[in-house]
Write a structure and sequence with these properties.
The chain is mainly alpha-helical. It has helices at 2-6, 9-21, 26-46, 59-74, 81-99, 108-112, 135-149, 153-158, 161-171, 191-207, 216-229, 236-250, 255-258, 262-273, 277-295, 304-307, and strands at 173-177, 184-188. It has three domains: 2-112; 135-234, no CATH class; 239-307, no CATH class. It is elongated. The chain starts with a helix and ends with a helix.
Length: 311
């Protein structure tokens, strides 16, 4: 589409005008032409292909373009509104160069609803005694991912976080590939998962500051130290996901939290869901099967450790 757009009259006319208006600065020319190309693609494919010259572009056209960028953010195409605001800012600059003081600047927030939103935190890392990012601090994002997605450590390490963020925000699910057998599964991407993935992206950026790529054993050691300090067992983070999902899907706490026997739990579930005791048992079983599939285990037997009251 980019190649075809470069052949369109609208793009060629705007490109010539931008070269003329910015002939003193090659880098600015290239940046604005690239942003002009993005606008032209939108105009041709999403806005009726009615424009032929840059001078025919009105304020209303660019407001609609900004609103389109906002919708793309809402669909999960961008991890933050910064990208959309940058494209809109570029068009403001282009039109200012073309029209001078006659151009009325378009506000990303007021005109297009582009509030400042980012799912990737921008924070300084904890540093070790050598002034490098603290490995244990970076390993903390593994815990967040496990708790919010129910995945094991290896799956957290190989997950493409940017792709997961886009998929989660646009579809409501994240695709996980099992490190054991390569089987792919869909996991609900709840708000806690969006936050955890964003934190993970930030953590991996910090990891690049280390002298070498950290190996699995390095992260496992740091992860174990962190979990021990927080009073976790190796399965606690995943257990939190399992228990949260069970309560979300049934509306009642699992027996391990309510301290009820299995029979007492079924009666409580029956009352809460307004179902017969037999139907409540079926709801409990079906919920366990769904969660087992989400975390990638065979059958519901492994979930007893996470959900049921200890004898």
């Amino acid at each position: 589409m980019r190649h075809k757009t470069r052949l369109h009259q609208l793009y060629k006319n705007g490109e010539a005008e931008i070269f003329r208006a910015c002939n003193e600065d090659y880098k600015t020319q290239m940046r604005l032409i690239n942003q002009w190309l993005s606008f032209c693609i939108w105009s041709i494919t999403k806005n009726g292909n009615s424009l032929e010259t840059i001078n025919s572009v009105t304020r209303e056209h660019i407001i609609r373009y900004g609103q389109y960028l906002k919708s793309e953010f809402d669909k999960g195409k961008f991890a933050s509104t910064n990208t959309a605001v940058s494209y809109l800012s570029g068009m403001n600059t282009v039109m200012k160069r073309i029209h001078g003081d006659n151009w009325e600047k378009i506000s990303p927030i007021k005109d297009c609803g582009l509030e400042q939103i980012s799912h990737i935190p921008n924070k300084n890392p904890e540093l070790d005694k050598n002034g490098l990012p603290d490995i244990e601090s970076l390993a903390g994002y593994l815990l967040e991912l496990q708790m919010s997605l129910g995945i094991v450590i290896r799956e957290a390490l190989i997950l493409d976080l940017k792709e997961a963020l886009n998929e989660g925000r646009s579809t409501g699910f994240v695709t996980i590939t099992s490190f054991q057998n390569g089987i792919r599964r869909k996991i609900p991407c709840r708000p806690s998962a969006i936050k955890a993935i964003g934190n993970g992206i930030a953590a991996r950026r910090l990891q690049k500051q280390l002298p070498r790529k950290m190996e699995f054993d390095d992260f496992l050691s740091a992860h174990n130290k962190l979990t021990a300090r927080k009073g976790y067992s190796t399965n606690t983070a995943r257990a939190i996901y399992v228990r949260d999902r069970y309560q979300e899907m049934t509306g009642v706490e699992p027996p391990i939290m309510s301290k009820l026997s299995q029979t007492e739990h079924w009666h409580k579930l029956s009352q809460h869901s307004n179902k017969t005791l037999s139907e409540a048992k079926g709801l409990d079983k079906n919920t366990r099967h769904i969660i087992a599939k989400e975390i990638g285990v065979l059958g519901i037997e492994p979930l007893k450790e996470y959900l049921d009251k200890k004898p």
